[in-house]
Each structure stands twice: as structure tokens, then as C-alpha cells.
Design goal:
Structural class: alpha+beta
Distance between the termini: 50 Å
Radius of gyration: 21 Å
Number of strands: 14
CATH architecture of the largest domain: 3-Layer(aba) Sandwich
Shape: flat
Number of domains: 3
Strand order of the largest sheet: 1-2-3-4-5
CATH class of the largest domain: Alpha Beta
Number of helices: 15
Order of helices and strands: HHEEEEEHHHHHEHHEEEHEHEHEHEHHE
């Protein structure tokens, strides 16, 4: 791919925004300034000139164009950076996005046809039809995804490469309730929770994007962070719409940057209260990381053995959870 064509197709500022970088106009007006994504910045020192497609950080001294930023941000060589960008933004990548969008929509329609999936959601405390539609929750009954996608013009090779079907063409999310994971308004992955005896959790290969539903909470000065999507669903249903999910206890650098920008955000960690204290240890370690990055972290304590999902399933109310937040401790 020609270098100039690549840069024109993906301007530096667009790529930075895909990584959730936020900038404000600098004094001169021709540039944007924000926290540097390349080092632990506490004062905005990273300048972007959109017209020249260049960046420079006065904190770490790094600067250059889109290719140079990808080298530094992804820790790649020049050639590896080109290959990365070609792979991410080639027509085949666009096809992958399209097939994931169509799969998510197909699964969403299937949910209404299968009572076992709706029963499972009810057992997990997720009962609000509007919320189910908003989160685009679906169901993979199995046996008909490949046929449907083939009728839409998607090749079997594409379905295999995205991980939607196995070598035999069978649905990878068979008998799973499915949540689409979105990034910059597009489905980039799917999470499936088994309603049978299969391993509970499944994602497709590749990136899961940033924090779940981040666009809905990114402007909130207070954020609740939970481990799982059913934790998020019951909290949204109870009115705690400033909740996001990290898909487990270990956050990626992108997710850490999301939570800690702007500095001073209050983050309540509502992790599982495990008997072996694994969730508690993970939340304490994460709280220390967030504090170093400029966030104010609090540890919310639920009753022993509970996570937010099970807490509400077992009868807790929004007022009960507020008391957990009120009792949260900072490090």
C-alpha cells in the first residue's frame, strides 16, 4: 500500500481518537493538545497538528507522523507498522467489521425466537426489554448462522478467519447468549455466555476494543467498573448508567487510559467478593495502578461471595448497592 494513500485514508487524528485520545485546541488554535499516549503524562504535553498530520510530545520528546506513532504506541518496527495498518484498514478488515455487524443483528433477532435464552436472561436478573435491545443482546441457537451469512454474500473463508464458525462450519457461539463489543461505533468482537454445560465464556480472536459501552460513560466524573457484562446489565437496569466493564480483572493499557482521563475521575471498583479473595486482590492492584495514572480509586465491598449480578439476583435493591458505594474505601 502506498504510504501517502495510507496516511490520507487514515489521518493521524482519526487514529488517535480510535485509541480514545482526547485533545483540546491549543493556544495557537491550529493544534490540539492532550495527555500523551506514549508515556504516563500528568499534564497535557502531546500536540497534534491535523493539517500537517504530525504529532510532538514536549514531555517525552517523541514526534512524527502516523507511521511513527504506531511504531511507538504498538512497539513495532517500521515495516511491522505498515503491515499492521494495512491489515487493520484494508478492505478485508472492513469486511470483517461488516460480518460482525450482521452476525450481531442476526443473533439479536434469534433471541426473540428462543425461550431458553430469555429464561436464562431472567434467571440472571436481566428482564427489561428496552435494556436488552439497547445492549443488543442476542442468542446463538446454532445451526443456521453460516447459511444466513452466506446468503448475505460473506465467504466461508471470512467466517473462519473471524472465528464465527469452526472448520466444519459449526457456530462458535452455539447455545450462548451474545453481547456485541463495540469500538468507535462498530462491532469489533462478540462475547458469548454459555447457557449449557460448555465453558462459560467465549470471545472471538482479536481485539475486544476498550471498555464496554465506554461511549455512554466517558464523560461521567464518576464511573463504576465491574468484571462481567451481566454485572453491568443489572446495574444499568437498576439505574447505575455510569457503569462500564473491563471483561475481567486485568485491564489493557487502552482501558487504563480510558478510566484515568481526565485526571481526577472517581472510579469505584465493584469486583467479585471471592472466597479465595482473588477478586479483592485484583481490585487492590488495579486501584494502585489507577491512582498512579491520576484517577481516584475506591473499593466497593459487597457481601461475601457476591458480585453485582448475583447481589441483585438475590434480592438487593438500588438502595442496597448505594450503601456499598457509600462504604467504599480508597487506598
Amino acid at each position: 500500500m502506498d504510504l501517502q494513500r495510507l496516511k490520507q485514508r487514515l489521518p493521524l487524528l482519526d487514529y488517535l481518537r480510535q485509541q480514545n485520545w482526547m485533545g483540546r485546541p491549543a493556544a495557537a488554535g491550529r493544534e490540539l493538545v492532550g495527555l500523551c499516549p506514549l508515556h504516563q503524562d500528568t499534564r497535557p504535553s502531546f500536540y497534534v497538528n491535523p493539517s500537517k498530520n504530525l504529532f510532538y510530545c514536549h514531555g517525552c520528546g517523541q514526534g512524527g507522523d502516523l507511521i511513527r506513532f504506531v511504531q511507538l504506541f504498538q512497539h513495532l518496527s517500521f515495516r511491522e507498522s505498515l503491515a499492521y495498518l494495512e491489515q487493520q484498514y484494508s478492505p478485508s478488515a472492513e469486511s470483517a467489521v461488516a460480518v460482525l455487524e450482521e452476525t450481531a443483528a442476526f443473533y439479536q433477532r434469534q433471541l426473540q425466537k428462543h425461550g431458553e435464552a430469555r429464561l436464562y436472561l431472567a434467571q440472571r436478573g436481566v428482564r427489561d426489554p428496552a435494556l436488552i435491545q439497547e445492549l443488543r443482546i442476542g442468542y446463538a441457537h446454532g445451526g443456521n448462522l453460516r447459511r444466513h451469512l452466506a446468503a448475505q454474500g460473506f465467504s466461508f473463508d471470512l467466517l473462519r478467519r473471524t472465528g464465527l464458525v469452526n472448520q466444519q462450519g459449526l457456530d462458535a457461539f452455539y447455545r450462548r447468549v451474545v453481547f456485541p463489543c463495540c469500538w468507535e461505533g462498530h462491532v469489533v468482537n462478540l462475547y458469548g455466555r454459555s447457557i449449557g454445560i460448555a465453558f462459560p465464556h467465549r470471545f472471538l480472536p482479536g481485539s475486544r476494543g476498550g471498555l464496554f459501552a465506554w461511549e455512554a460513560v466517558r464523560q461521567c466524573p464518576i464511573v463504576i467498573l465491574v468484571e462481567g457484562l451481566f454485572d453491568l446489565a443489572v446495574l444499568w437496569q437498576a439505574g447505575f448508567r455510569y457503569t462500564t466493564c473491563g471483561f475481567g480483572t486485568h485491564l489493557t493499557p487502552t482501558q487504563l487510559r480510558q478510566l484515568s482521563s481526565p485526571p481526577g475521575r472517581h472510579v469505584f471498583l465493584a469486583y467479585d467478593q471471592d472466597e479465595n479473595r482473588a477478586g479483592q486482590r485484583a481490585s487492590q492492584a488495579l486501584a494502585r495502578q489507577l491512582q498512579l495514572l491520576g484517577a481516584v480509586a475506591f473499593l466497593a465491598t459487597l457481601p461475601n461471595g457476591e458480585d453485582p449480578n448475583s447481589y441483585f439476583v438475590h434480592g438487593a435493591s438500588a438502595a442496597d448497592f448505594i450503601r456499598c458505594l457509600d462504604g467504599a474505601q480508597s487506598l
